[in-house]
Write a structure and sequence with these properties.
Length: about 400
């Protein structure tokens, strides 16, 4: 009997480490004869784009572990409930049966857990001997029922490092201006908050950090910036792309904003928006805005080893869950202790995670809504611990991906 694993949604720096963890644990336990990989998620599997991961040699597997982005390719494919459209379920199950698949592992976020829950429900209804297990990943850290998600720690480390380095760059002159960093985060502020880890001489580099969980006021923002610029002749600002006004509307979303296949608004441009606010208010013309963009999810050169190790851990736990006959679950991370940091895995119902959002706690945001608390920093810091040592080829990191 065999199993299959696929990746879905936005990539992360350590998403392939979960595949590595699963494949390696299967080598150790010999649960399945072969571990297949579905290229481009469930969409690719439906088109029979499938490879055999068990045929990888040791060197390929190790290189794949340290490769950023989705090495198997990804998709944003909305699987309808089988009561609405059973055709895709019938087609998928037929393909899985042809390969003698007894377990299906899906690496992804909220929408991927929705797919996992739907497939498990269908298998149970049809009395199918196929297990469906979700493996978490998302840089957004917005999955409920898990302390954090693989991928977030590395993104947080990159953002904190970029904040530290650009802060130093923005303070070299006697006559400095205002610097703005825009972090990803459509619905939550976990990524922007991680900039608070960047400190010089025990003081945060960022003067202000604005998150979607706190109502954004243009008046308060300009007052904050004007006052600080007058005092220091320099202001460093970190903002989430998902900032919302008092009505709950994204401050940069227009009626013409694009949406993905799951109906999520495609955002961006908050940094430029804030830059224009500052300039139009006459505070200063010396304003720079930097959108970190996709580097937040693929900067393997700045990955957290803790994050990589936990990505491997959840992949290995998924194989063990399938071996125990579990289905319809996601592997969750439990924080055992914070200092020294230690974590373990538990199984949670995928249906309880699907289409839900874990917001940045409001009690971790200061009263003015423009920075985060010490409690938040204590939560974040262990997740960026240690560095990943990468093998090189032609003086650059050595990576492994599959044709897709």
């Amino acid at each position: 009997m065999n199993c299959i694993i696929a990746q879905s949604g936005g990539p992360t720096s350590v998403i392939n480490a979960s595949v590595y963890g699963l494949v390696k644990e299967n080598f150790n336990l010999e649960v399945f004869d072969n571990v297949y990989g579905g290229l481009n998620g469930i969409q690719g599997i439906l088109e029979k784009k499938i490879i055999n991961l068990s045929s990888m040699n040791k060197d390929e597997l190790e290189a794949f572990k340290n490769t950023p982005s989705s090495g198997l390719g990804s998709c944003r494919y909305k699987l309808k409930d089988f009561s609405e459209n059973e055709y895709e379920y019938i087609k998928l199950i037929k393909i899985l049966k042809e390969l003698d698949i007894k377990a299906f592992f899906y690496v992804g976020g909220n929408d991927s857990m929705d797919t996992t829950a739907k497939l498990s429900k269908y298998a149970k209804k049809k009395n199918l001997d196929i297990k469906f297990i979700g493996i978490p990943k998302t840089i957004d850290n917005d999955l409920v029922l898990t302390d954090h998600t693989p991928g977030f720690g590395s993104a947080a480390k990159f953002i904190a490092t970029a904040t530290l380095e650009t802060y130093l760059d923005s303070t070299v002159y006697m006559d400095n201006g205002i610097f703005i960093i825009e972090a990803m985060g459509r619905d939550t502020g976990w990524l922007a908050a991680s900039a608070a880890l960047a400190q010089i001489n025990g003081k945060p580099c960022a003067d202000f950090i604005y998150l979607p969980e706190s109502e954004f006021s243009i008046t308060d923002f300009l007052n904050d910036v004007r006052k600080t610029f007058k005092e220091k002749n320099h202001v460093y600002i970190v903002a989430s792309e998902g900032l919302r006004d008092c009505t709950g509307k994204f401050i940069t979303q227009s009626a013409y904003s694009a949406h993905d296949k799951f109906g999520h608004a495609q955002l961006g441009g908050v940094g430029e928006y804030l830059k224009n606010l500052i300039m139009d208010a006459g505070i200063t013309k010396r304003v720079k805005a930097l959108e970190l963009g996709v580097m937040q999810r693929c900067a393997m050169h700045c990955a957290s080893k803790t994050d990589l190790d936990e990505a491997i851990m959840v992949g290995a736990a998924a194989i063990r869950a399938a071996a125990e006959g579990k289905s319809g679950y996601m592997v969750s991370i439990k924080r055992e202790t914070n200092s020294p940091y230690k974590s373990s895995t538990v199984l949670v119902d995928a249906n309880e995670i699907a289409n839900k959002i874990k917001h940045f706690p409001k009690e971790w945001i200061n009263k003015k809504g423009n920075h985060i608390t010490v409690e938040a920093i204590n939560y974040l810091r262990p997740l960026i611990a240690d560095n990943v040592l990468l093998d090189t080829e032609d003086l650059l990191p050595k990576y492994k991906v599959f044709s897709r």
